[in-house]
Amino acid sequence: MRTTTFWLLTAAVVAAVFGLSRYVTNDYYFFAAYLVLQYIVLATAWNILGGYTGYVNFGVAGFFALGAYSTVVLHKLWGPPIPVLIVVGGIVSGIVGLGMGYLTLRVRGVFFGIATLALAIVIQTFITNWDYVGGSRGVYIIRPATAPLVGNYIEYLFLVMLILAGMSVAIARTVEHSILGFGLATVRDDEMAAEASGVPTLRLKLVATVLSGALMGMAGAPMPYYVTYLDPASGFSLSYAVNAIAMPLIGGTANWLGPVIGAIFLGTIEQVATVTISSALNLLIVGVLLVFFVVVAPNGVMGMFQSRTRRGDR
Amino acid sequence: MLDLFLNAIASGVLLGGFYAVMTVGLAISFGMLDVGNLAHPAFVILGSFTAYILNSRYGIDPIVAGIIVLPGFALLGAVIYETYYWSFERRGEEGVRGLSFFFGLLFITEVALILIFGVDYRFVEAPYIGRSIDIGLVDLPLRMLVPCITAFVLIGVLQLFLSRTFIGRAILAVAQDGQALRLMAVSPKHVKRVAFSLSIATAAIAGSCLIIIQPVEPSIGRDYIGRVFAVTVMGGMGSFPGMVIAALVLGIVESLTATFYGPSWSPAVAFGFLLLTLAFRPSGIMGR
User: Which chain A residues have a beta carbon less than 8 Å from that of B234?
Assistant: First the structure.
């Protein structure tokens, strides 16, 4: 399938989902669907680096919260519309991704993973000590009474996140089928051989890190308007990282469809479990599923459906 | 000013000793065996909670409690290593999946402890908590001194074990070249399992030390991830003397930061250290 066709198809799916959502009357479903869509963005973003190159980013919460807190700053300054906030959040997280990638992508993958975890805590410490954005007490965001286009604010947030999810999936698919994607695949399979054959591995990894970080920041940008109260402990919650890693690993990391399947599957289970059982137990479920899938089904749900011959030549 | 500075240095040294005992397990698993056990701090917290149970139910001294549960932790380590070996190492898939496995374990341990004990801070009681000894201007609280001494005793014993016993030397050998060990008719997997059990067992003692120093709740383990990895990497991956020096440096810098800028900045110090080490000196201060 051509890339343009895929973009058009994604746009059609987004429009169709939005059209169907016009028949939903209960606001709760928009709140739940927003979170699932947010996880589609986060899982897809993580997969661009983690799945395509094999470099694990444990600092998802850091990038996500950077997006969220740049929204807080802009909201206090002048309160621009959400699309602007998303772009700014993406730029901020992308720049931080570039800096971190430049410092750590040259060492082995395991060090990169630890450094990302460390980065998330450094950022959290800075935010906690920065009184302008509420410090450790947190900050309240009062959202406008009415929203553009659809009127109801939560429906507007849902639409924004739906478009963002469609966009990130299309970007992931585009990367996968471009020269960049082939380069990243060589890094994943054998970085030394790739380097020796003249693949500019560091530059490719940096592009992937920036792209992945920026998408995470974009996912975080509308968050303050969604929760209306943001503090460092919830913004930097480890559960974002666990979810963003568990979802692609459960769905399958080889292509764009895996994270989407994982996010819809796990995200829905979590929403149901939070309502019916308890939110602490639902985190336990995510952790157990993550360990279960990496141990038992290394290629995720997608791997289960692939034929044996294709698995054989991996 | 001078006594403030001296006290900051002294408590930094004590803190560094404690960081060394937190790290020693990781120096074995990550430094020597190349197993990126992200969940190590979570097992330390588990150790704190077992010490808490033994202390509050039966009044056992926390350090003794740590020694009592050593075999249980070693067994846990053996089980985890077997799972890790069969699922990842054997297939050469340590990278993404192995790390995610430990990340999942970290998360499961934390959430399970929250479900059982809640998010309240727990503490232990022992005769030496709350007292301190004065040497000139410097004031040494026993609740910091006891973990620090425990740390140096434990590290000394481990160093002797590694350099003097057969299995200890085998562990050092597997850290250098597993393939060569196989040619000497020793199974690298067997040696690594013993070493990994040892590394998890140290978490029991580290947990006891942690809960003596400060009250513990399940999610504080995260604050130590960056510190223990920073110390391991800075120490040159598996060299005990290097690790102790790195731990002392980190402890002193953190203590000075806390004294002169405020304690809320101290987490960033360790992580800043880690980032800088990774960027400029990935082989550590005593690197091979």
Answer: none
